[in-house]
Amino acid sequence: xxxxxxxxxxxxxxxxxxxxxxxxxxxxxxxxxxxxxxxxxxxxxxxxxxxxxxxxxxxxxxxxxxxxxxxxxxxxxxxxxxxxxxxxxxxxxxxxxxxxxxxxxxxxxxxxxxxxxxxxxxxxxxxxxxxxxxxxxxxxxxxxxxxxxxxxxxxxxxxxxxxxxxxxxxxxxxxxxxxxxxxxxxxxxxxxxxxxxxxxxxxxxxxxxxxxxxxxxxxxxxxxxxxxxxxxxxxxxxxxxxxxxxxxxxxxxxxxxxxxxxxxxxxxxxxxxxxxxxxxxxxxxxxxxxxxxxxxxxxxxxxxxxxxxxxxxxxxxxxxxxxxxxxxxxxxxxxxxxxxxxxxxxxxxxxxxxxxxxxxxxxxxxxxxxxxxxxxxxxxxxxxxxxxxxxxxxxxxxxxxxxxxxxxxxxxxxxxxxxxxxxxxxxxxxxxxxxxxxxxxxxxxxxxxxxxxxxxxxxxxxxxxxxxxxxxxxxxxxxxxxxxxxxxxxxxxxxxxxxxxxxxxxxxxxxxxxxxxxxxxxxxxxxxxxxxxxxxxxxxxxxxxxxxxxxxxxxxxxxxxxxxxxxxxxxxxxxxxxxxxxxxxxxxxxxxxxxxxxxxxxxxxxxxxxxxxxxxxxxxxxxxxxxxxxxxxxxxxxxxxxxxxxxxxxxxxxxxxxxxxxxxxxxxxxxxxxxxxxxxxxxxxxxxxxxxxxxxxxxxxxxxxxxxxxxxxxxxxxxxxxxxxxxxxxx
Length: 731
Description:
The chain is mainly beta and 731 residues long. The protein contains 8 helices and 53 strands. The longest helix has 26 residues, at 47-72. It starts with 14 loop residues before the first strand and ends with a strand.
């Protein structure tokens, strides 16, 4: 196939993902395209003009098809849209494989200026195989205009593309054990994703979640925890939900409220088995309904108040959809639906209707309009009344930190060469190496920065005791006696450094007297045009060794297997890790000009915005390029006002951030509401198990889309169906 000088070959690599494009839309684009944007002037019959018109028509028809797909589609997490992706690609392959691979051809007519079809020429669109497989397709547009013919083609490779990992939870537990949380506060979503039955999670002492909660297992509640359903920090148009796969047992005050009016798709509590209360539970509030679903209910003790509908539907096994209401003071500001039998032993106020499939015992105790009580009812379970599905499992992690450390597959990792260099002797640099170079000691940086978000840049100076400019080991050889308390250490990521990988030497233990402050500055200039994330990142990795063996993907679980990962233990008191762009906005010049010392509270007026929309007067960090990768059997203990701005990917490790964190941090929501918090971390924490202590907050910010974390969930049964546009040709 030959390219002529008339049209220079253009390469357009990149995956184009089908999302909301239905099969019929694809057929319409391919089979009934009508070219209305080529103005036909029949008075000019010059051959050159005829050729140009034919070429413009053919190329515009072809490009409109390609551009339509590119413009109207985007990556999706929605199962229905993902199914449409596959159907659309399958349909394209069917068109190409017809007639033994010669494909499908259709003629397209043109509309003239009078809106009628003019017999001045035709375009043939052919979708055919290129070679022996429908994986490779060529779409050809051949136009004949007043006797002159021109032909253009697009060469396409169809293939399923592994879906990039999405991180929506501030804290995510991967292990198969339960956990207890004391004064845990989460801004964003929280999940326990291991679908092992029998686990029990416990909330005590004012634990709060400002977002969604998903857990596999049972939840036991005491001492006034709160779940405030907030707009999603991933998609502000969506609300939030609570999903508990087994039982919810409330022994002492539990509040589930919302800041959004109820709508289909959010503002609900979904309990897979039994709800039991013995002392005060509130669900929803006036004007902010929250519906509740369970498979058995036993409401007792004191006070149950709900704004929203209460549904008790049959479940698996012994869960027959029965409900007992026997609390001292119980009100449902909505309707009650019971698929089994209803037993009311104390006064129950229902402002809506009562629908019971079975029998009602204690009907006289129901305070409700008599005509609104329906015994022997048939429940529609449609629309708002449909029970939400509890997913069989959450998105499973396929690749682990060990894969990122050791794999030779560049589709999985970009840092393995730098990691292995620590063990093959080709990188012996430590923090002390940089401390021995006077150009990196007492380092001063001045940079023009837009501090106000108005585009006006002002010079900002910050000073550091030590500067790190390439991958190295944070070893025990750095003398903090020479640096003093609170040494500021700058990690400077650039195009020349590439990814900076910092290995934490096993056993690294720093007491509160040192309390280092790590600031990561990322100025790599290669930027992802879709997300705005810089190509290179900073990784803090565990000292898991070079004896790691990657044993392939398990055929049953679809997860990577490994062995030989060394256990590591780390203990830090007062360690703080900041993103540079946040650091220079969070603190004033009196802090930035010091090379050591506790930075203290954020300056007055600094407001952190973790949402997906801009809020006036706040700073919204970009996706975090600071990534902590801890291998199997690693334990991190961080205490004494430690703070981390970055994401932890530690699915087989223990992360204990038992610290009061950074004080005085003001955080906003998408509506401009503010609250001041003690903050332990800004990012996401993914761990086998997680420990906390003290009243401190964890705030959501997603990891960089250019980091290796994007590959963590791999490709097990989770494809985005699309194509790659290889090139255009003009014949």
